[in-house]
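Weekly modeling sync, notes
Attendees: S.R. (lead), two postdocs, one rotation student

Agenda item 3: backlog of single-chain predictions. S.R. asked that every request posted to the team notebook include the full sequence so nobody has to chase files. The rotation student volunteered to paste the first one in as an example of the format we agreed on. Action items at the bottom.

Example entry:
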Amino acid sequence: LVMVGGDQSLTAGGWRGTPVEEALPVEMQAPRRHETPEIALVLVIDSSSSMGAPLGATDKLSYARQAAQAVVPELRPEDELGVVAFADAPTWVVPLAKNRNRDAAVRSIDAISAGGGTNLYPALVTAYEALLRSRAAIKHMLVLTDGQSVGGDFLNLAERMARNRVGIATVGVGEGADGKLLSAIAQRAGGRYYPAVRWEALPLVFQRETR
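Predicted structure, as returned to the notebook:
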């Protein structure tokens, strides 16, 4: 069955309450109230020494900070935002909470500095456990790194995320990013992997993923 709609068909065409409406995957009566579910989003940002490397007139971490800051206005005040920076260990830059103080979140992100090694696994666990405690209907994690992480049970964690409906997107930037690992994490968790992203495009990628 194929049905073509227009401004004089469907509800306006008198099909409401007919067997045709029952057969179609739409309802002829518009819902009286449209509710958008609350979102909890945690950004996991690499702040290791390599992120402090010069890049043009600035450095890599500056682009990462800009990308994270671009997410803040994309979320509503009733949504939750958290930011974890990681090097040797994870640190909550913006603890996961309602996105009601956007200026403070932007300032906190701007204070992220580079230094240390690349240890991604504890940062993922930290973000995942916080998202599990959230009461938001949609839970998502956005991960950015430019390097090779030390070991961890990444795939087991990704499977737990999939079972508990915690989404993830991984972004690898620069030639040193471990694309194989990032792709495997995203695939196992049912998420998306953005490979070889240009530094200048990071804010757009973060905004697109948030939307």
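Discussion: group reviewed the output briefly. The chain has seven helices and eight strands.
Action items: rotation student to repeat for the remaining queue; S.R. to check formatting next week.
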